[in-house]
Design brief:
The chain is an alpha+beta fold and 604 residues long. The protein has 13 helices and 24 strands. It is globular, with a radius of gyration of 25 Å.
């Protein structure tokens, strides 16, 4: 919820999740974003992109002089300790996994003295546009407050419920009270479909404990013992949080329209499943032993892309749906005045020739990890590669989804090479059926063309696209996919050129220079955090362990106090920028640490 001096910094938000949706909770205790029951559902709390009138749930201690917060173990159960001139309170926030709805649980315990508490509940479904019918009900376990609008019902239960305030058309529920040492209060907010019977309340303390245990059990499956243990496990947990527990779909982030350029138009909805980002996430999870997630995502892929391979999209809904039409929400003023606020994503209709490369790399790793192919999964890959062979040399929008003119991106061609390289290996190394001689010829032709127009001998670097004289941070992935060894002089030259052109602060890289590469949009950008992970990965592969550690140190330093990374970072203000938490940022960090540990001989 915006403060009097401007919007709450993106890095001040914690994230809660239940494997189906996520909520953002400010440092002061306001839930300013929640989209039940799915990641891409319309928000019922949208103050993040507007004001308090667009929906929030605030439980705060207004006269706090100090707030400290931490996760309880390897979980997304948040503990916040608040100190005031008169006392100390501890708040617990969690999102237990329920089968009959989506729920946020909040607990308050006063451990010393007394504290003043402010409680405000403003429900606004439809991204803050809909005023619900709010009234008190009896649900068999005492009074509750219910908000209903169309398909949504939100039921607030608790030891002390806020009172309705309707003056000036506010339609809010507020309460202020003093809690003293020994007081323990609990509230739960449950979303269910409005046409269903109200479910009974669950065991309060047991729910939170079960949520903490479930996250912890998942984290322990990695058995990771290398460097950066705390940061790696937190990043893996973020990737799990962004994975739908029912469908296996992996969303790119929990939010929409947090700006890449505050006050500008670079505001996008990331609550969908990009094949590229999901495949890279799968790669990171497989490197840490998460085979079940790999199998679930492969099944999601089979369902999502079923049909004509020529109809392959680069992004799908979490349930595999194809219709992600982009629209603008004119009633929301946007974070820091950044408009338009968008839901849906027009990139769904773009051609991005790199996508299948990332997918095939991830599926190849799954094979190498002993996950067998089914007849359907291999048949799908064969058909997708055959479709790619017919289109790889056409201009596309590239990994960065430019909205300017299509062009022949070097990175896209390299990833097409990677797709062919992986199916060739599937035949030669795993005995799967396929026209290996023809695939090998196409793979080698792609490589020859990339070396012809993607490599600039004069500049000593690969360039962003055919005819360009500038580079692109995505080219750091060339050694990652095996196109060139990391210590090849051409790869070293490319890394050096990228750093010279795009490194705006130690370890922090722009994706590309907007002044050099027309992406069809006004405004500028900030360092893109996944690029820092790719840089550290490339340095580690080349044997520059010290250089990799410096970059990894930058990422761990700028992460929030809760270990979260957004899409970008502004070194001039020290603030996170863009949607949060960002899967691509976290997975790039995890994979870079993996390469660092391999380079140093550390054991997991």
């Amino acid at each position: 919820m915006p403060s009097g001096s401007g919007p709450i910094p993106i890095g001040d938000y914690a994230v809660l999740g239940d494997g189906r949706t996520a909520a953002l909770l400010s440092r002061t205790g306001s839930v300013d974003w929640w989209c039940p029951p799915r990641f891409d559902s319309p928000a019922c709390f949208a103050a993040l992109l507007g004001g308090p009138e667009h929906g929030h749930w605030s439980l705060t201690v207004p006269d706090a002089i100090e707030r400290t917060r931490r996760w309880l173990g390897d979980s997304f159960v948040l503990e916040t300790t608040v100190r005031t001139p008169t006392g100390v309170a501890v708040l617990i926030d969690a999102m237990p996994a329920r089968e009959d709805g989506a729920e946020i649980v909040r607990e308050l315990r006063v451990t010393a003295g007394h504290v003043r508490v402010s409680h405000e509940w403003v429900v606004r479904p439809g991204y803050g546009a809909v005023l619900p019918w709010v009234h008190r009900v009896q649900d068999g376990n005492g009074a509750a407050v219910q908000a209903v609008a169309g398909p949504d019902r939100l039921l607030l239960r608790g030891d002390r419920l806020p009172h309705p305030v309707t003056e000036s058309g506010q339609h809010a529920h507020r309460d202020e009270f003093t809690a003293v040492a020994g007081d323990e209060l609990r509230w739960s907010l449950l979303w269910t479909p409005s046409w269903q019977a109200i479910p009974p309340p669950a065991d309060g303390h047991g729910e939170v404990r079960a949520a903490q245990d479930a996250w912890g059990q998942w984290a322990r499956r990695s058995h990771y013992r290398g460097s950066y243990r705390e940061e790696v496990v937190r990043s893996l947990l973020v990737l799990r949080l962004l994975t739908d527990r029912d469908t296996g779909g992996i969303v790119a982030a929990a939010t929409t329209s947090l700006p890449e350029d505050p006050g500008g138009v670079r505001n996008w909805d990331y609550r969908f499943c990009w094949l590229r980002d999901a495949a890279m996430t799968l790669h990171a999870l497989l490197e840490h032993g998460y085979r079940e997630e790999a199998q679930a995502w492969r099944q999601w892929l089979l369902r999502a892309v079923a049909g004509d391979p020529a109809d392959l999209q680069i992004v799908y809904g979490v349930d595999g749906r194809r219709d992600l039409a982009e629209r603008e929400l004119s009633h929301l003023p946007g974070y820091a005045g950044s408009t338009p606020v968008r839901v849906g994503n027009a990139a769904v209709g773009q051609v991005q020739n790199d996508v299948l490369g990332e997918v095939m790399c991830a599926l190849a790793l799954a094979r190498d990890c002993g996950i067998p192919e089914s007849p359907d999964s291999w048949s799908l890959q064969v058909h997708l590669v055959e479709a790619l062979i017919a289109t790889w040399d056409q201009s596309d929008r590239g990994i960065w989804e430019v909205r300017g003119a299509p062009r022949r991106f070097t990175h896209s061609a390299v990833m097409a090479w990677a797709a062919l390289d992986r199916v060739v290996a599937a035949v030669t190394d795993h005995g799967l059926p396929g026209p290996v001689d023809r695939w090998t010829q196409v793979r080698d032709r792609i490589r020859a063309e990339v070396m012809d127009w993607g490599w600039n001998a004069e500049l000593g670097t690969f360039v962003q696209s055919a005819g360009a004289r500038h580079t692109d941070a995505a080219l750091l992935q060339l050694s990652q996919v095996g196109f060139l060894p990391a210590d090849d002089p051409r790869m070293r030259g490319t890394v050096a050129a990228i750093r010279a052109e795009l490194e705006v602060a130690p370890g922090l890289l722009l994706r590309y220079r907007t002044a050099c590469a027309d992406d069809g949009l006004p405004g500028t950008e900030h360092p893109f955090l996944a690029c820092s992970g790719w840089l550290a990965d490339a340095l580690a592969r080349a044997g520059d362990v010290d250089g990799a550690e410096l970059v990894l140190g930058t990422l761990t330093h700028i992460a929030t106090d809760l270990g979260l990374l957004a899409e970008e970072f502004d070194p001039s203000t020290g603030r996170m920028i863009g949607n949060v938490p960002q899967a691509l940022s976290h997975l790039a960090f995890v994979r870079a640490v993996h390469q660092h540990d391999l380079a140093t001989g550390m054991r997991r």
